[in-house]
């Protein structure tokens, strides 16, 4: 089982629709969680961090469910410009001498918003 | 805004060449990372560094080495490039607290022929 899993999609939705993605993680000791947006052939860009109580940024809402070990991203009133791949990232304490936290990424969910 | 700069956007190298990928960040971040991204496999961690002259192996370090002589610069070295190292390489940095996000450079698309 992968450490972080996402449905690859694509999710094809009409403009104005609401769409939700989930991301499951296997390590219950994971500490922090993020959503990134990646456009074709570009680098991932931070969309939002995910907080335990849930958080909202405009049309985007992120939630964390520690009991079931998943995070979610909800996009309301989808725009054409929201078309991209959405990556989740989970921060877990790594091994090695430093004990530094390691980021594990899902393979991404592709969203296409249709006119 | 955090700025992470990778020295080359596109590179074409021959099998067996030694390849250097450079990454510089301007935010005094402690931690720096090198990932490669391949279709269907997502982002995979090659190496990371939590401080100057410190480094740790990620999930796929074979065939790679790294150097961090200054805090702002993290170099990835392909000792002898092979065709299976053709990929998108992404550098990232962050402050050294557990809940801070990664900030990525714009990537280097490396082709090894």
Description of the structure:
Chain A is an all-beta fold and 115 residues long. Chain A contains no helices and 11 strands. In chain A, strands 2, 4, 5, 9, 10 and 11 form a 6-stranded mixed β-sheet that branches. In chain A, a hairpin with a 2-residue loop joins strand 6 and strand 7 (60-65). Chain A is globular. Chain A starts with a strand and ends with a strand. The mean pLDDT of chain A is 92. Chain B has 113 residues and is an all-beta fold. Chain B is 0% helix and 53% strand. Chain B is built from no helices and 11 strands. Chain B has strands at 4-6, 10-13, 19-25, 31-38, 42-49, 56-57, 64-70, 73-78, 87-94, 103-104, 108-112. In chain B, strands 2, 4, 5, 6, 9, 10 and 11 form a 7-stranded mixed β-sheet that branches. A 4-stranded antiparallel β-sheet of chain B has the order 1-3-8-7, with no helix packed on it. In chain B, strand 4 and strand 5 (42-49) form a beta hairpin. The mean pLDDT of chain B is 94. The A-B interface holds A 31-32, 34, 41-46, 49, 87, 89, 91, 93-94, 96-98, 100-108 and B 31, 33, 35, 40-43, 45, 48, 50, 54, 56-58, 88, 90, 98-99, 101-107, 109.
Number of helices of chain B: 0
What is the H-and-E element order of chain B? Answer: EEEEEEEEEEE
Distance between the termini of chain A: 37 Å
Report the end-to-end length of chain B measured between terminal Cα atoms: 36 Å
- The computed structural class of chain A is mainly beta
Q: What is the mean pLDDT of chain A?
A: 92
> Number of helix segments of chain A?
0
Q: What percentage of the residues of chain A does DSSP assign to strands (E)?
A: over 45%
Reported for the largest beta sheet of chain A, the result is: 6 strands, mixed
Task: Report helical residue fraction of chain A.
Answer: under 10%
Low-confidence stretches of chain A: none
From the alpha carbons, calculate the radius of gyration of chain B and give it in angstroms: 13 Å
Order of helix and strand elements from N to C terminus of chain A: EEEEEEEEEEE
Question: How would you describe the shape of chain A?
Answer: globular
**Helix fraction bin of chain B:** under 10%
Strand content of chain B: over 45%
What is the overall shape of chain B? globular
Secondary-structure-derived class of chain B: mainly beta
Cα-atom Rg of chain A, whole angstroms? Answer: 14 Å
Number of strands of chain B: 11
What is the residue-mean pLDDT of chain B, rounded to a whole number?
Answer: 94
């Amino acid at each position: 089982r992968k450490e972080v899993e996402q449905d690859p999609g694509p999710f094809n939705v009409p403009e104005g629709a609401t769409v939700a993605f989930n991301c499951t993680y296997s390590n219950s000791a994971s500490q922090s969680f993020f959503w990134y947006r990646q456009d074709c052939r570009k680098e991932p860009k931070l969309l939002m961090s995910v907080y335990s109580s849930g958080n909202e940024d405009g049309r985007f809402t992120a939630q964390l469910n520690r009991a079931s070990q998943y995070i979610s991203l909800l996009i309301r009133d989808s725009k054409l410009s929201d078309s991209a791949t959405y990556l989740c990232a989970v921060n877990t304490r790594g091994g090695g001498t430093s004990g530094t936290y390691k980021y594990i990424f899902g393979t991404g969910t592709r969203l296409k918003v249709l006119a | 805004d955090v700025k992470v700069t990778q020295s080359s956007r596109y590179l074409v190298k021959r099998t067996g060449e030694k390849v250097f990928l450079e990454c510089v960040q301007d935010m005094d971040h402690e931690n720096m990372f090198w990932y490669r991204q391949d279709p269907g496999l997502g982002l995979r961690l090659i190496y990371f560094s939590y401080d100057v002259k410190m480094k740790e192996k990620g999930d796929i370090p074979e065939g790679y080495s790294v150097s961090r002589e200054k805090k702002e610069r993290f170099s990835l070295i392909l000792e002898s490039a092979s065709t299976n190292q053709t990929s998108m390489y992404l550098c990232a940095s962050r402050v050294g607290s557990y809940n801070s996000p990664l900030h990525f450079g714009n990537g280097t698309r490396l082709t090894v022929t």
